[in-house]
Amino acid sequence: xxxxxxxxxxxxxxxxxxxxxxxxxxxxxxxxxxxxxxxxxxxxxxxxxxxxxxxxxxxxxxxxxxxxxxxxxxxxxxxxxxxxxxxxxxxxxxxxxxxxxxxxxxxxxxxxxxxxxxxxxxxxxxxxxxxxxxxxxxxxxxxxxxxxxxxxxxxxxxxxxxxxxxxxxxxxxxxxxxxxxxxxxxxxxxxxxxxxxxxxxxxxxxxxxxxxxxxxxxxxxxxxxxxxxxxxxxxxxxxxxxxxxxxxxxxxxxxxxxxxxxxxxxxxxxxxxx
Length: 274
Fold this sequence. Notes:
Layout: E1 9-14, E2 17-22, H1 33-46, E3 54-59, H2 70-79, H3 87-103, E4 108-113, E5 116-118, H4 120-127, E6 130-134, E7 138-140, H5 154-161, H6 163-172, E8 175-177, H7 178-184, E9 189-191, H8 194-209, H9 213-224, H10 231-247, H11 249-259, H12 265-273
Parallel strand pairs: 2-3, 3-4, 4-6, 5-7, 6-9
Antiparallel strand pairs: 1-2, 7-8
Helix pairs in contact: 1-3, 3-4, 4-5, 5-6, 9-10
C-alpha cells in the first residue's frame, strides 16, 4: 500500500495494523479541513489493501480530538458571498463524508481515546468497531453551547447509543468521563492507566489477527445494512455471502483447520512472528 503524504497525521504500519495519529497537539488535535481530507485519503488508500486488518486512530499530546477547528469556520465566513457556493455547507458535509467512509472501511477501526474526545472526535469514537478509553478521558458534544448543531455527528451518535441518551448529551452539552462513556456504549472498555490501555490495544490487535480479514469485512457490511435493507433481502444477501465465503480461500482454510485441529494460516502467522 502506498500511503499519501500527510502534514497533520503521523502514519505507521505495524504488521497488519495502520496506526494513524492526529498530530496537532497545540490545538488538542482539532480537525481542520486539511486534516479531514488527509484522513479520507488515507482511508481510501487503505480500502484496497487486503493485508491490512486494522486502522488505529489516536491523538498526540495526550488528547484524542477536540472537534472541528474553529479557524476553518472563520475562513468559511470570510468566503461567504464571493460566489454562489455555501462554504459552511461544504465544510460541514466533508466531515460527514469522513464519518461515512470510516464507518464503511473494510478494516476494523480501533479508537484509542484519551484526554479530550469532543465534537468530531466524539463522532469518530461512535463509528469505531472497537473503542478503548482512558478513565480520565472527557467526552462531550459542546456544539449547541456554540450556537450550532452537531449536524454530521448526531446520526452516528444516535446509532451508537440510542435516541434518548443522544438527545440528552447533545441538547445539554454535558461532559462525560470514560466510565460513563462506557456505560452508555460510546466506548467498549475503560482503563485507569496508560500502561493498561496500551496492553488492551495490543490484546485487541492480537484478537483481530485471529479473525479472517475478508470474513470480518463481510460481517461489517451485513451488520451496517441492518435497518437500511428489507430483512428478507438482507438475509438473501447474507446467505449468498456465506456461500461465497465458505467456498472461498478463507472458508476452505478455516473449516479445514478446524477439522485438523490447527490454527488457520491468518492466525498461525501471529504466533510465528511472536
